[in-house]
Amino acid sequence: MLSNMHRCLLIPEVLMEIGEFLAEKETEGLGEESDINVNEVDARSVLAFSLTCRAFCGPGLDILWRHLEDIRPLAFAFAGKIDLILAKGDGPGEENEGQECVKLSLTRVPGPSEWGIFHSYSRRVKRLSFGPDFGPLYNTSPSLLAELAAYHPPEFLLPNLSCLAWYYTAAAHFPLLSLLVSPALTSITVMIDQDVNATKLWDILRLSAPALQDVSVSIYELTPSSTTYDSFSQAIRSWPNLSSLQLEESSELFPIPNDDLVYLAQCAKLRELRFAIHSNSITSNIGSSLSNSHFQSLKHLNVQVKCPATLDFAIRMVKSIRPGNLTSLGLESAYPCPSSCFKEFMEAATIHRNLTSLSLRMTFESHDVTRRNPNSYVVAETIAPALKLTVLENFSLFGIPLHLTRDMLEKMAQSWPHIKSLTCCEWGAEERNSTLLSLTDLEVLAAGCQHLRDVWITYKTVFPEDRRLPIRRTSDLELHLDMRYSRIDEPMKTAVYLTNLFPRIKVSGFGSPDLLGRLQSAIELMKEVRSQERQYCA
């Protein structure tokens, strides 16, 4: 077949494009309700493409192996050359102590030819998600990775790995992380618990991954030490192409020291930043030094504040960014902010008219203080400045006591014609006998927000018997319900209402599994009734 192909078709890039097109083409027409796994369709199609001729074999294998959800498939590359055995042993971690689990192991040390087979696959891996699973091979991957690394020649196990997601948080597994970090790595997501020395993490990334561009780290360490900060400072300065930095510490964000924040402000390629402002070391010098020449490429900003001084700095920071640059902005407050501060932050956000995502979140600690004051509601006018953001697609209010009037909802629907996702959830709503956004408010949103696809609301509304049925919409909606304080006793009435608004609605939620299950069953029943009605009318 090769002799009959034009030489232009034998260019590797062209062959790869053919494989990519085939994978995408095969998944077209598969609706969300299909029980066919899209990844399985991709794999079958690309495998058939690879077996067509030798020219397609390489590109096809590249597509099949570029993204792995686990390290185990690479071990099976030895199949036929080395046997793999399944042995039982104690499960790793305190939660599995004394429990039997399966251990995957090689029966002998691979030879050069067998490593050659292994490398023919491992060099194709570009992305790896490495974390615990709960199947029959529970947690076999860490021991298998350690065994492969022990036998492997003195070179990188995955030499071309560019994206790594590490979800083994236990300290016992942390040493294995260094086995997967290589100079080719450009993106990493890491989660580690408080027993892991965070200083070692930053040192590993600094010394072994100089090409990192996207860094997301969740450190469950409540009080970072000075050595941790020193190591962090050295690490970010070793990544000249850093474009995304997301830092989380326990339930809060990781505080960035002032000197490091000034450095990041001058990084020409930084596009995304998620961090907490140091609550005890903000100085006016930093705020005054920020100007439109800083954060020139920043598109996504999420900042956590812990006191009035840090909120004031966050507002100045938003104002200092070149107008129009930001497309995503989030504020998390770890203390009870007054309404005037929220409004000032909103006004600062409106200079960025290209914002498509705006999020305000109040943490548990701050809300525990706020909810004791019944007069601490944030009035609807507080978010009025956000109505100027006419291209907004995602708007989120989480844990904030807010009264939304029907008039305000109508203004939101008119001002945000492109809105796709809306979140309005409040902590402690049962104590104030209030709600942010009820099911009946969906009628207002359904009438004006033609692109609405995703809604989080507090589920507390009881529908009157004489409630009129709204006009049907043909679009889909994913509705997430906060059902912890629900008082609805008639799921069928709710299902009738929702399926009239959104005939293809999908509902999920938390807080009351029994009520959620009854509501989901009622909605599926109403969908079937609607379907039979349409067939009868046809």
Task: Explain this structure.
- This is F-box domain-containing protein.
- It comes from Cerrena zonata.
- The protein is α/β, with parallel strands linked by helices.
- Among the domains are: 2-36 and 39-52, no CATH class; 71-161, no CATH class.
- The chain contains 18 helices and 19 strands.
- The strands form two sheets. It has a 17-stranded mixed sheet that branches. A two-stranded antiparallel ribbon has the order 2-3.
- Helix 1 (12-27) packs across helix 3.
- The longest helix has 25 residues, at 513-537.
Number of strands: 19
Termini gap: 51 Å
Shape: globular
Q: How many helices in DSSP terms?
A: 18
Helix content: 25-40%
Low-confidence stretches: 6-10, 25-41, 91-99, 364-376, 428-435, 461-471
Rg measurement, Å: 27 Å
Strand content: 15-25%
The secondary-structure class comes to alpha/beta
Characterize the main sheet.
17 strands, mixed
What's the rounded overall pLDDT mean?
75
Itemize the secondary structure elements and their pairings.
Blueprint: H1 12-27, H2 38-50, H3 54-65, E1 67-68, H4 72-75, E2 84-90, E3 100-106, H5 112-122, E4 127-130, H6 141-151, E5 163-166, E6 187-192, H7 198-208, E7 214-219, H8 226-236, E8 244-249, E9 252-253, E10 255-256, H9 258-265, E11 272-277, H10 284-289, E12 300-305, H11 308-320, E13 328-333, H12 339-349, E14 357-362, H13 364-370, E15 394-398, H14 406-415, E16 421-425, H15 429-432, H16 442-448, E17 454-458, E18 478-482, H17 491-501, E19 506-510, H18 513-537
Parallel strand pairs: 1-4, 4-5, 5-6, 6-7, 7-8, 8-11, 10-11, 11-12, 12-13, 13-14, 14-15, 15-16, 16-17, 17-18, 18-19
Antiparallel strand pairs: 2-3, 8-9
Helix pairs in contact: 1-2, 1-3, 2-3, 7-8, 11-12, 14-16, 17-18
Protein name: F-box domain-containing protein
InterPro entries: LRR_dom_sf (IPR032675)
